[in-house]
Amino acid sequence: MSAVRVLLVIVGPLRMTLWVLAIATVVILFLTAIGVSRHLATVRADRRRARVRAKLEPVFSRFYETEDRGRLAEELHPAFMRMDAAERPVAAVLVTDLMHSASFAQKEKLRAALEQAGIVELGHRGARRFSPWRRALACEMLGTIGSPRSVPVLLERLGDRRPEVRAAAVRALGVARAEEAVPALTEAFLERRVAPTNVVNEALRRIGGEAAPAFELGIESADPIVRVSSCFGLSGIAESHGGAVHRLGVALGSDQDSRVRAAAASALGIVGGGNAPAELVRASTDPAVPVRRSAVKALGSFDDPATGETLDERTEDDDREVALRAAEALVALAGRPRAAAEAGARLESSSAWAVEYARKVAEVSA
Amino acid sequence: MIAVLQTISVGILAFFVVYCIATWTLLVMSLREISWFARGQEPTHKHPGQLAHRPSVSLVTPAYNEEALIVQSAKAFLASDYAPLEVVVVDDGSHDETFARLDEAFDLVSLPLRGKTALPTAPIRSVSISRTEPRLRVVSKDNGGRSDAINAGISTARGELVVIVDADSLLEPDAITRSVRPFEVHPDTCMAAGGGIRVANGSMIVGGRVVTPGVSGRGGIGATQVLEYLRGFYATRIAWSEMNGLLIISGAFGVFRRDLLVALGGFSSATLGEDMEMTMRIHHLLRPQWKEARVEFVPDAVCWTEAPGTLGGLRNQRVRWHAGLLDNLRMHWGMFGRLRFGAAGTFAMPYMVLFEALEPLVEVLGFAIVITLLIYNAVNWTYLLAFFLVALITGEVLSTTALLIEEVGFRRYRAKDLARLTAWGLVEALWFRPVLAWWRLKATLLALTGRRPGWGVIPRGEAILEHPSEIVAPLTR
User: Fold this and answer.
1) What is the fold, at CATH topology level, of the domain defined by A89-201?
2) What residues of chain A lie within 8 A of the CB of B404, using their CB?
3) Most buried in the list A145, A230, A238, A256, measured by CB within 10 Å?
4) Could you check whether the bond before residue A224 is cis, i.e. omega within 30 degrees of 0?
5) So what's the ipTM on this one?
């Protein structure tokens, strides 16, 4: 009996070891096999890419030379239909690249031809495939093609289980400038659940003035991140939405959160213009340092001689960054038609260290 | 006594098993993430989420006695494809011609130097701007160490974001653009981001750029470090970043919000691991009040670094790293196991304590037990052989997974380099790990006996605890 025990003591760990070794070896072999197959798949994908390019590029190059959309559609349709499931994503990438580099007129022609050739329908099917990266790629292609028929499919993808696909759908709706998506994107923007706030913001900005209600609502949101994002959103659509500057001024003058005030000041600076809003001038003495920093920098974007005095005062601010930004803003003003004389005089008479610094940098940079 | 030693050795085996399971879990999580990331490498995914207005970036690089490389490094940094970018080189009281070389190459003009700097540092002698390349600033200061030099750079920098890069590191041209991406997607919540560090030893370098990545064929130090960096950066950090539990952004290449660094009091000189300390401080001070604050890892933002090529150099580096790790764990012990710090407190801290700080003790204890049992002729050879084989093969599982992540996500190395790495991975457990364990034990002893740069305290920054989200100005977008 004791001999058996001794044997078990010896064989026991060995047997366990053999099991562990066997499992670990299988794992290593499995991982290596994945690595090798992945490597081979990549090599195959490179070849496939070249093959698809060879098939499609002559068609596209002929397309640019002719006005005949129907002919392109006729050629594209069989070319796409002959492709297998692995080749179509490559073709989708190629189409997307082509659309990115095309002029507006070319895009219009290409869009019509792709719709006619049934490529958009293929994209719709791709957006519902099992593989999430294919769904995302299909969304991106559909957004770039910009067919109005794709909007419902992209809106459906806003509810995708994968965040990457949802973000791709949001981007695609923005790239497609889908005005009918504004309500859904507004909801996504305000609730911050579908995609990162800034991704939705970019999409809304691309849509333009039609998206203004999203930012108008956003700037009233209880969530400061949405309010901050709305400030920059309003600056992005200020050209097509006349009330943007006024709304930013109100936020700058009244919001309790210093981040929102700082964002509103920066956003006003992005818009720029002639006379600086009174709220922006007042914000240059805001108790919160980030707000003062944003405000004095923004003042440099307006061609307003009346801001010279304020900026001159701020060059002596306790905060080094405020002082430097004020001096840089004065230097910027000195290069503008209306404010040049006032700013130039202020720069000449100033003994502030920050002014000396900014002038030296401007002199060397020039 | 023999029974006690044998019981301890079983405990060590259990520790090893837990380590393997925990690390492999991280690797598998990373693999899952990286497979998506790899799909995102398609040409059309090059510019997702780019902001209408990009945040301005200041690249800060501390330089101490870098006369041989500094001009080439500065030119390479300026050649980055990111804009708006400024490069701030901080000459930290070099004894060589570092400043003179920069002056000669870039025609420097001194800028007025008055007023209080944003962060306290050793005296600054001059701040200069280049006539030929106005995006370049050079700060010359008294020697104060790496953290002090970085703080001087942060004080001089004007960008909304600060990229910290070592002067001898090689950044890929798109590294800054890629590393800024998390700030573009999450401009309100991303506080810091770290890029991937790769070992340049064995690679072909032309004009400050790695043109053909490779693995050093001479000895195993270079190859084993490549493998180790792959495991450390590309395997586990991706998973930690996913959980928002990343405790270290490498000092060789990290991006931070400048106003946050200033509000936190800059990098600490009280620790040898100032990069890790800053990352931990961000979690420690911000996360309880601001759950959304994130620290991210960007695997495709690549910085190449020269790893030590000799055992002596490697020893110095690892002793320094481990002492820094112990400092930081002690300084931020308050996060350990605490839910309010998220994954950083509940998972990352225990992992660091168990498998980074205590691991050398356990490993060396294991060797000591084997030697003792040998002396007493009480070794269970079957058990020893079993343990040894299991250690070898499970180590290889970890290495193979890391190489798979590399191949799936990045494909930087040629097949022969991958084969070389696999081979060195097999023998790593025989020499690299024991040597590393010994050096790290030495660092632990130095730390315990106080024979290392002072036991620091967290620099100022507690004042921001009330409203941490309001200290960072919104990024331009």
Assistant:
1) Leucine-rich Repeat Variant (1.25.10)
2) 31-32, 34-35, 38
3) A230
4) no
5) 0.81
